Amino acid sequence: MNATRKRLLIIAGTILLFGVSTFIARKTLGTALGLPETKVSYHANLAAVRKAGVIEQGWVPEILPAGSKDIQEIHVLDTNTSSGTFRFPSADLDAFKAQARQLAGAEVKELSTITYVVYSRDRSRFELILTPAPNTAEAMIGVWNMKPVR
């Protein structure tokens, strides 16, 4: 594995670790410290996300790779922000990038093995980062962040 790829995987892993750590801290200390109300949801796959309605509510990006699974979403009601993680088969990446490029106003950038997608919808800005899973070439991991655009 070349040094650049290794650094990029470390960055992606750090982003995921930060998200999980933030979630644990908010859930553990949230009420005692008066932190904003945080909601967490887990969905086995994209069909479950659609059934739960969290895409329509604006908490989950309207575009995710077709084979997305293990989708975890965290949103903060007080700030109207969300973030999340997901996994998907590497074989879905090219179709996802094509889908993202067709979305009006979306930007798709690629750096080595990392794909970055940003777009705005309904006064919200979504940023997605996709990278190969460190333990297998057949899987990808993704993270997203959503914040309001004022």
Overall mean confidence score, pLDDT: 84
Number of beta-strand segments: 7
Strand order of the largest sheet: 1-2-3-7-6-5-4
- What is the CA-CA span between the terminal residues? 42 Å
Unreliable segments (pLDDT under 50, ≥5 consecutive)? none
Bulk shape: globular
Please provide the ordered H/E string of secondary-structure elements.
HEHEEHEEEE
Q: What percent of residues are in strands?
A: 35-45%
- H/I helix tally: 3
Q: What class would the helix/strand composition place it in?
A: alpha+beta
Radius of gyration based on Cα positions: 15 Å
Describe the structure.
This protein has helices spanning 3-33, 46-52, 93-102, and strands at residues 38-45, 69-76, 81-89, 107-111, 114-121, 124-132, 139-148. The protein is α+β, with helices and mostly antiparallel strands and 150 residues long. The protein has one domain. A hairpin with a 6-residue loop joins strand 6 (124-132) and strand 7. The mean pLDDT is 84.
Would you spell out the secondary-structure blueprint of this structure?
Blueprint (H helix, E strand, L loop, with lengths): L2 H31 L4 E8 H7 L16 E8 L4 E9 L3 H10 L4 E5 L2 E8 L2 E9 L6 E10 L2
Antiparallel strand pairs: 1-2, 2-3, 3-7, 4-5, 5-6, 6-7
Structure characteristics:
alpha+beta, 150 residues, globular, 3 helices, seven-stranded antiparallel sheet
Brief synopsis:
The protein has helices at residues 3-33, 46-52, 93-102; strands at residues 38-45, 69-76, 81-89, 107-111, 114-121, 124-132, 139-148. With 150 residues, it is of the alpha+beta class.
